[in-house]
Amino acid sequence: MKRPTRPAPPLKFDMSSAHPNRLGADFDGEGTNFPLFSENATRVELCLFDETGQTQTHCLDLPSYEGGIWYGYLPGIREGQTYGYRVHGPHAPEEGHRFNPNKLLIDPYARELRGDLIWDDALFGYPIGGDDLELDPRDSAPFMPKAVVVDPAFDWEADKALRHRWQDTVIYEAHVKGLTMRHPGVPEEDRGTFKGLASPAVIDHLKAIGVTAIELLPIHGFLNDRHLIEKGLSNYWGYNTLSFFAPYRPYTKSGSMREVKRAIKRFHDAGIEVILDVVYNHTCEGNEKGPTLSFRGIDNASYYLLSPEAKRHSFDTTGTGNTLNVAHPMVLRMVMDSLRYWVEVMHVDGFRFDLASTLGREPEGFERGGTFFAAIRQDPVLSMVKLIAEPWDIGEGGYQVGGFPWPFREWNDKARDDLRAFWRRDPGLIGDVSQRLLGSPVQFSHSHRPATSSVNFIAAHDGFTAWDLVSYDEKHNEANGEDNRDGHSHNLSHNLGAEGPTDDPGILEARLRRVKAMLATLFLSQGVPMILAGDEFGQSQQGNNNAYCQDNEIAWLDWEEARDELIRAVADLAEFRKADGGISRARFAVGPDAVQHDTPVATWLHPAGREMEEGDWNEGELRLFALRLDLPRGRDLLVVLNAGDDGDFALPEGEWRLKIDTSRERIACDEPALGTLPVGWQSVMVLVAAEEAD
Predict the structure, then answer these.
(1) Are residues 132 and 55 in the same domain?
(2) Of 157, 184, 540, 586, which cross-links 450 as Cys (Cβ 3.0–4.6 Å)?
(3) CB atoms within 10 A of CB 258
């Protein structure tokens, strides 16, 4: 790092304008207030750099300390100023303290970052190859990105949260870069950025297939792990957070957070909500052998959970080396401030919480009424946005599907697995699938939770794509450099006769039919449907079910090979779900013996035309059955699922009209049906009562 060639003009704190109230560099138009929380520090230095972030111009002690917050106001420090901190305190690893002022640290509240992290041994608080109880004296500043002072002013032009009802929501899980890098309609210079993400080509496609919310894989500033870079790979998914406020700079063409705001505004103009996948359970600093970049050097004992047996070591319930200590009031405040910032300043519409069980861990284990959830539920801002939990972590008692409090919704892996297995033609699954069609009431119909509590999906970023589910029997993760040992093996997939790509027309037809049937079941189930970006056109990752490190054509969407028949099918399913108004209701359907006011009534039908009997549910080879939904003030629906060979289904009395048939090239139709209905192999059919059809 360059040192100034001549002394910089002196700077002096103005304590009459200083305050500890708002954390993070706060520019007021005349100067900037710099506060930093560290209750165990003994001294905090604010280091200023030139606009490149390479030359240090000043280093000053923050002059005031109050309630664990060090702070000072510098007149004349404006938008664009780069800075970092050096924090002094006890170097006592066995007591949990790892202060090392030789390490430049990123402000946890930084709104922008400038420069890239350059991996060097100086980034570690101890000498690499030595004992982590030792202190490393090298300066890390030359290798660190720097925080940037920003002006949050932006003309939103009356933009506000869309707040689509959950029952009207269709989620599209996507990666900023992967969605756009190979899109022919996105200008090449904009690909991989928020500008490209919000291009007309992308937005028009999402609107055409009925998407109401785009859920973005992590966009917070994150770190590319050293071991991945050394193997020529990267942390593509981004689940390795460095900053909870600053966007990941490479996703912005301009380097400015305003580009993110402009993208969000364009999505809102199109009627599409923006949901962020956020990682508040851990950070990129890893365990005690990891680098010292921010939280560890600012106050390790406050920001992280430490082992109750030995505070020298991190307490890891996430599988990443550390666990953020959200039970600490100031760490919880940081998380809440971050969430509110993204809602109030950046205008996002909701969040999906990675490994959310970790956020509910109290001293006695997971608590659905714990501090984190209570804080969000009472918050007048955050309680109004969309909240989605990934309801598990790797710790004891971490699997909590159905265990989160309202207003949280949850990823439902039970629906994922049962629908995959049913369409793979596994025996004895009609009982399980019947529950998934009704929104998994065993898991979610309690504590006054609605049927929209379940976020249903066939595929997500972690695992096979929908097309790979019908193209590979085994995972093929060799490109990850771990001898195909990484990634899970329980994929519930079937290649239908050939491992990987094939020109066999019979296999291709079978694959197309099965994917359409799986997607149809997803859209025809109560709950909230989520589709993985690319599943609407048959995206393949070449059998890689753990593409976390593949920032390349393995993971980037291949728009040139899109299957138009699948795109039309998804558009038709989304349109039917929207127009029908019955499948997406917030109330759980009930059986004929439990009729409630304004509640759908579900009846299960055998292909012989009668109601299902107890013995039918135990018939392992039965793969053809139907759900009849009698809807108050709506159309009666009949959803027929056939995971087996061609069959016949005896329709209930009355006249029906066929609206969806996934065995056809164009699945949307409108034609009369009565008597015995021929049902094609591996297909879904939807009928409505004729008198209500129009």
Answers:
(1) yes
(2) 586
(3) 17
Edge-first strand order for the sheet with 683-689 is: 601-605, 624-630, 637-642, 683-689, 656-661, 668-673
Start-to-end CA distance of the chain, whole Å, equals 72
Which residue is associated with the tokens 């589709």? 531
What is the residue-wise DSSP string for 646-683? SEEEEPPSS-EEEEEETTSSS-EEEEEE-SEEEE-SSE
> Pairing state of beta strands 43-49 and 56-61?
antiparallel
> Band of the pLDDT at 693, cuts 50, 70, 90?
very low
Q: Any idea which residues carry the catalytic annotation?
A: 354, 390
Q: Are residues 460 and 576 in the same domain?
A: yes
What span, in angstroms and rounded, lies between the C-alpha atoms of 125 and 94? Answer: 14
Residue 290 and residue 112: Cα distance in Å, rounded?
A: 23
> Angle at Cα 483 formed by Cα 482 and Cα 489, nearest 5°?
90
Mapped onto helix, strand or coil, the DSSP state of residue 524 is coil
Residue 189 and residue 135 in one domain: no
Mean pLDDT of 335-356: 96
Q: How far apart are CA 93 and CA 318, in angstroms?
A: 22
CATH of the domain at 35: 2.60.40.10
Q: What is the CATH number of the domain that holds 540?
A: 3.20.20.80
Q: What are phi and psi for residue 559, nearest 5 degrees?
A: -65, -25
Estimate to the nearest angstrom the gap between the alpha carbon of 162 and the chain centroid.
19
pLDDT in tens, 503-559: 999 999 999 999 999 999 999 999 999 999 999 999 999 999 999 999 999 999 999
